[in-house]
Amino acid sequence: MKKEFLTRKECTAMRGIAILAIMLHNYCHFIGKIVQENEYQFFTSNNDRLWQVISNPDSLLPVHLLSYFGHYGVPVFLFLSGFGLVKKYESEASLPTKSIPFLRYSYLKLLRLLIVGFVLFVCVDMVTPGRFPFHWDNVLAQLLMYINVLPEPDKIIWPGIYWFFGLMMELYIVYRLLLHRRSSWWVVALIAVCWLLQVVCEPDGETLNRLRYNFIGGMLPFGLGLIAARVPTLGTFDSHAGNNLFPRWEHFAWFLLAILSCVLVFAMCFNFQTWFWIPIFIIIGCVAMVKAMPEWLLKVFVWFGGISAAMFVAHPIARKLFITVAWKQDIYDGLMLYIIVAIALSWAVKQIIERIPKPTL
Fold first, then answer.
1. Under a CB-based contact definition with an 8 Å cutoff, are residues 7 and 238 in contact?
2. Cβ neighbours of residue 323 under 8 Å, at least 6 residues apart?
3. For residue 21, which of 67, 64, 59, 57 has the smallest C-alpha distance?
4. Are 268 and 126 in contact (CB under 8 A)?
5. Nearest to residue 40, comparing CAs of 187, 177, 162, 216?
6. How do the residues of the chain divide into helix, strand and coil, expressed in percent and rounded to 5?
7. CB 50 within 8 A of CB 38
8. Is there a contact between 78 and 22 (Cβ–Cβ < 8 Å)?
9. Which contacts qualify for 44-53: CB closer than 8 Å, 24 or more apart?
10. 170 within 8 A of 148, measured Cβ to Cβ
11. b/e per residue, 309-323, with b = 16+ CB within 10 A?
12. 257 with 285: CB under 8 angstroms?
């Protein structure tokens, strides 16, 4: 019997891995002396600094690595979003959905998460040091999820991670208007166009920064999710099913693939041209990880995946409260307090979100 390429449990575990990477990254990269990431722009100085700390490791090496690589949890979320859209809206059993109802539903689904996190964050931000100067037009743009297209998005989106909501809304529009039930070659073509628009930019320029804050920068992992879900027999293996179709060494093969993906990600981050394609191997590595890990560890990441949406909107609140511990006392003291509070706060936020009525198509 044929198995899904990715089971529901494995997708949830991938969300768990992704949210932990993002949560830890968003704390670590706020510490001034830690290596900064190349997420929206490509800075050679950041790569030089990364090589320096790897060549001369100290006790802060894990924090450096989380700061530099943790943001790659975002492409995993984008991949899973594309994968899920195809499974939900392009199966034989799915009912046709018109564009306006689909986009309305998608916006309200995102707003249900955003509004809870944003309100709580603003309340905390107002009573803690370092208040952000919110302006009514930027707040409106954030809530309507078009703030990504405004000039200098990295200076007006606060907390910064909430740029993801505008990105997802753009990708929902692109999917429904251009890619829904169309040939995967349309997806490949759009990925190529988005790559060309970026590759001609200055590596550290503002144009590239703005493009990567929007769907142009996220099309590669999102498109890979669409394509992966459309291939009918991409995988006939469920590594966590009781009746595996492959020998036991299959787990070891997945483990080797995960290691190889990590090596390629590291090697590719030092070149501007290969840097664009890193999300491919991030996704391959994440898939390989959930396929290779034992059942008990998979359950841990599945649990985190179950609260990933709440953790996404809640962890900036915990960061605002505890980042000063890392600045004034000890980085690992602050990190431990942050993790504990972020997990507890995410569970509480999840309870609030679940009491808000879900939108319907």
1. yes
2. 27, 30, 31, 334, 338
3. 67
4. no
5. 216
6. 70, 0, 30
7. no
8. no
9. 44/203, 47/269, 47/270, 50/269, 51/270
10. yes
11. bbbbbbbbbbbbbbb
12. yes
pLDDT at 194 over 80: yes
Nearest to 161 by CA among 59, 19, 334: 19
Q: Is the pTM value of this prediction over 0.85?
A: yes
Q: What is the pLDDT of residues 85-107, one digit of tens each?
A: 999 999 877 766 889 999 999 99
CA distance 38 to 322: 24
* Structure-token pair, residue 155: 């200076």
User: DSSP secondary-structure letter at 149?
Assistant: G
Q: What is the CA radius of gyration of the chain?
A: 20
Token code pair at residue 253: 């093969």
Neighbouring residues of 291: CB distance < 8 A, sequence distance ≥ 6: 10, 237, 239, 250, 251, 254
Cα separation of 74 and 171, whole Å?
14
CA distance 170 to 334: 35
The mean pLDDT value for 183-198 works out to: 97
d(CA 194, CA 188): 10
Angular region, 145: left φ>0, alpha ψ -120 to 50, beta rest: left
Which amino acid, 195? W
- Listing DSSP states for 292-351 in one string gives HS-HHHHHHHHHHHHTHHHHHHHHHHHHHHHHHHHHHT-HHHHHHHHHHHHHHHHHHHHH
Q: How confident is the model at residue 247 (pLDDT cuts 50, 70, 90)?
A: low
Please tell me the number of Cα atoms within 13 Å of 307 on its side-chain side: 21
Dihedral class, residue 3 (left if φ above 0, else alpha if ψ from -120 to 50, else beta): beta
From the list 280, 275, 233, the residue with the least C-alpha distance to 260 is 280
